[in-house]
Amino acid sequence: MAIDGPSRVTIRAADAYGSVSMSGLRTQPMPGLLYLEIDGMQLDRIDLSTMPGLYELSLGANALTSLDVSPCLWLRTLSCNMNQLTELDLTENTGLKYLYCEYNRIRRLAFAPEAKLFELGCTGNSFGFSQIPDRMQAAVVNGSIGDGTPFSLWYQPPFDPGTGDLLDLSGELFSADGHPVVISLARDGTEMPPLGGLYAITETGWYSVEMTCTDMPLFTFWGEFSVSGPSAAGRLPLDGVEIGISGLRVNVGGLPEGSRAALFSAAGAHVDVAAGSTPSLAARQPGVYILRLTDGAGRTQAVKLRLE
């Protein structure tokens, strides 16, 4: 679909849930376009380089996996709720005041150093306080529906965890400005050991996660997810893989060629790494460790071990 000419363009599906599909959008140069709204069209890509004058942009309920708004230096309002974004770089958008990026799976949210939002709606993503600078705290509160009392923002993992997965929350142990964050992960109501923010999902059940930061007391991050069996997508099958433990040494056999094994301590530190189909790794002292296996195709598995 090609668009050129007006200062405002609105395109919406009948029900905003994708009953109409748009595979992409290209435009002629439109320096005079100020307002663009394309909602519920299952749009999977958009080139904004021809629309540098955009002031307001709404792309809700689409199928975007990436979004480059760097050409839009005048952008003041951005709404991209309910897409499939995993990161959002706003470092060029110094004048942005209103951001709504709810219900994606964003892990990285980068702002310009001088940016200061009035409203930030960011619930339903895969980050906690790690992506919220102190100066954005009021914007998060303003962007919520709350009445000024403490509230929770929904957290969802960056993937659908299954048994054998490693849920890495080590990047959430501090806020964007370095304040310590307390993370609690529980299975069926029983809290799991923190392990430096690394959690091995070894059993089925109902999991809940909560993140709190005393320096940002007005909101928390909270979420829950169910694990019913092994993760099917992107997981390295352990059929034929042998893991042997001898004291503080771990010997792995039967991996595909080009594989890599890494051993993490309970504090989340890298202890040892080895490559090949029969890697051997060693720890320096007894304790609980996470063994992470990755093959040449990027498929992974994680196993929790006790070495004595």
Task: Describe the structure in your own words.
- The protein is mostly beta strands.
- It has a domain at about 240-305: Immunoglobulin-like (Sandwich), CATH 2.60.40.
- Helix content is about 0%, strand content about 35%.
- It has one helix and 24 strands.
- It has one helix at about 135-145, and strands spanning about 1-5, 10, 25, 35-40, 55-60, 75-80, 85-90, 100, 110, 120, 150-155, 165-170, 180-185, 190, 200, 205-210, 220-225, 240-245, 250-255, 260-265, 270-275, 280, 285-295, 300-305.
- A six-stranded parallel beta sheet has the order 2-4-5-6-8-10.
- Strand 18 and strand 19 form a beta hairpin.
- About 30% of the residues are buried.
- Residues about 15-20 have low confidence and may be disordered.
Outline:
The protein has 308 residues and is an all-beta fold. It has one helix at 137-143, and strands at 2-3, 8-12, 26-27, 35-39, 56-58, 77-79, 87-90, 98-100, 108-111, 119-121, 151-154, 165-168, 182-187, 190-191, 198-201, 205-212, 219-227, 242-246, 249-253, 260-264, 270-275, 280-282, 287-294, 300-307. The chain starts with a strand and ends with a strand.
